[in-house]
Amino acid sequence: MCSSDLFPSHDRQRVRDIVTVGREEVASYSPNDALLICKDVIEEFDDQLYPNARLHFSGKPIMFFCDPIKLTRGLRNAVENGMRALQKQPGTVDLSCSHDESYVYFRIKDSGIGMDDHTRANMMKPYFTTKNSQGGYGIGTMVMQKVAELHNGRIEIVSEPGKGSVITFIIPLLTSYRD
Asked: Which of these, 50, 55, 56, lies nearest to 87 by C-alpha position?
């Protein structure tokens, strides 16, 4: 029996996220295009897993230094949370990138159920989840937080019950990097 028979694909993804992000305490910076990172994140999702969700990405290309593997893992978790927030109802999850002179912004906006004050205040706490019945363990948000920290960035959350959520990764815009 091979390992893929033991663990469903979403569980294998969780293990990959933990190993990819949690293994190292530093980011491996290289020059990357923010728009291509958005495209890569969206292309990771199988249409069959969330057939009710319409996924989109948009933005303008901007080259900046980041750890593309770790950043992709963090953004992927935020997009998946947005898809879960649709609760199997038709809806959209949009991943966009923009920038100013200091930061690159990755916004994940969903048309899901939104979050109440309690959920919003606790969602970044380790192992906090509202998705126990759907296989949630509170690990994805830990990965998101760790990715932001590894990039000397932060995450902002705007959400209201019944109106969806916007999760924004705010990453310093490094156009050059020295060891």
From this structure: 50
Higher per-residue confidence, 2 vs 158:
158
Hey, CA dihedral for 128, 131, 132, 135, is it positive or negative? negative
CA angle 72, 77, 81 (to 5 degrees): 145
Q: Which pair of structure tokens corresponds to residue 35?
A: 């728009």
Distance CA 23, CA 9 (A): 21
Per-residue pLDDT reduced to its tens digit, 57-102: 999 999 999 999 999 999 999 999 999 999 999 999 999 999 999 9
CA nearest to 83, candidates 107, 38, 50: 50
Query: Where would I find the beta strands (DSSP E) of the chain?
Result: 30-33, 53-59, 63-66, 91-99, 103-110, 154-159, 165-172
Residue linked to tokens 């649709």: 86
The structure tokens 């990357």 sit at 32
Give pLDDT tens digits for 27-48. Answer: 899 999 999 999 999 999 988 8
